[in-house]
Specification:
104 residues, 5-stranded antiparallel β-sheet, Alpha-Beta Plaits
Length: 104
């Protein structure tokens, strides 16, 4: 039974993320792999509070703010290609998640 592997790439560096996803797409085209995507998701903005001290009354700095960008691709069949892409070494600023679904 065929599998669909959904790969989710996330990074705060939009250009690097697009370069990595374009590289995956190019490799899929060269090998004749059925690939759907990349599908961009809306960017998410995050705010992280920062305390000046460990005590509750220690005050706080301005929150740290950053934006995360996400792209998803789906690989239909071609389990070896999906496994190699998910296991590749990417820059530290790229986070990769793999979700596998069996299709009947």
């Amino acid at each position: 039974m065929p599998f669909v592997t959904k790969l989710t790439f996330t990074s705060g560096d939009r250009r690097l993320l697009d370069d990595v996803v374009d590289g995956v797409k190019g490799a899929a085209e060269r090998k004749g792999v059925e690939l759907k995507g990349p599908h961009p998701q809306p960017p998410t903005d995050h705010r992280v509070p920062q305390s000046k001290r460990l005590a509750a009354d220690g005050g706080s700095f301005e929150p740290w703010q950053y934006t995360a960008y996400t792209r998803t691709v789906e690989v239909h069949g071609h389990d070896d290609f999906a496994r190699s892409v998910a296991g590749d070494d990417y820059p530290d600023r790229i986070h990769v998640e793999a979700e596998i679904e069996q299709v009947r």
